[in-house]
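Two proteins follow. First one:
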Amino acid sequence: MKKVVSVSLGSSKRNHMVRVELLGEEFEISRLGTDGDIHKAISILKELDGRVDAIGLGGIDVYLYAGNTRYVLQDGLRLLETVKNTPVVDGSGLKSTLERQAVERLVQQGLIRNGTRVLMVSAMDRFGMAEALEKAGCRLTLGDLMFTLGIPIPIRRLDKLRSIAAKLMPIVSRLPFQLLYPTGQQQEKHHRPGSNRFVRYYLEAEVVAGDYHLIRKYLPERLNGQLILTNTTTRDDVEELMERGAGMLVTTTPEFQGRTFGTNVMEALFLALLNKPWAAATAEDYNSLLKQLNWQPKILKFRKDTFLPEPETADKLG
């Protein structure tokens, strides 16, 4: 049995372990949250190195992208370089392949169309998804400055994001990661109603896309039927979205026993199947595995009065 482990800076309350069979291989897949403690994460990584088949780095990015430019986050690199023997990833390679395909499938189903208003909480975290949404003709609001730095300036075009990133990322990449992204107990917090500066961007959007913890960071008390395009959702997350009035939830990674894991876990799983180090894995390798696995976006429709067209194949709750 192959073992794949995600070591996450996120909350340990979201830990999960499953056993699955994929392409004839048995896998034990687990997530270990360190509650934002980077030193604990380093200790666990050292312990796992050479003892498991692949490792994913969760709750943190090593690489962010703006166009063809790759930016390295120093805290993420510190974790990556801790591991000397076991293949280790942050999920960015799979975001560029799986999530592009997920958007293309939603376009085919009519759930995303030319002119759809999309709030993407961080495009640099999922630039493949952002490019696919732009290609589909969506009207983008990119929240990179708002959701990571707290700067109340929406970005409307990917080319503008590229120019802003070129100016800011040499500084931002050296900041402690917890200043940019919710880690540990921050993932359990929610801004009080009335203190949320960014509510209107959610309510103006038809689709809210991107990392779930960033989506939840400023999630309004009441939505009006938005499609939420994300992953790493738990049963509690699904319940919360239903209660707050989301119209539909689409997750890009597959659900295993009631939980969708992050792209870092799925990419680590791919490396274990390929038996390759991260540097040797290509987009063609990932696309070949995706074709064999035939993963489809998981669609949960919560309510009938959403303004988005109802897919014939949508799964329904209640």
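Second one, unrelated to the first:
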Amino acid sequence: MKIKIINRSKHALPKYQTALSAGMDLYANLDAPVTLKPLERKLIATGLLMELPQGYEAQVRPRSGLAIKNGITVLNTPGTIDADYRGEIGVILVNLSAESFTVNDGDRIAQMVIAKHETAIWDEVDKLSETDRGEGGFGSTSK
């Protein structure tokens, strides 16, 4: 699938790190390092703008290495980029560790997955079909 993209950053386009990767790494595009104090969140620029085809979204997700090694994650994960959005892609990072963390220009900060989606049309009814689970939720299926 071809996707139109504008790269205003100093870095390469997002790419898959292996042949079977689902996500492409996104890079920080910064004029100066950004430090996240414990429990602090900041919007990190990527310098990328894109035009997704109708019926697709881009999902911004955390990088597992940053999460396990540094406690850094994407706050609204997965963040959705809609097909009609034309602004710069930004990543909301949050520091869940007890130590400050510095994001430098060119750091891989998140991954982006391109996903197909459906558009729902509501069918308002008075009754839903019955299942074994019924209304059980939040831990109701485990002991």
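SUMMARY FIELD: The longest strand covers residues 108-116. The mean pLDDT is 95.
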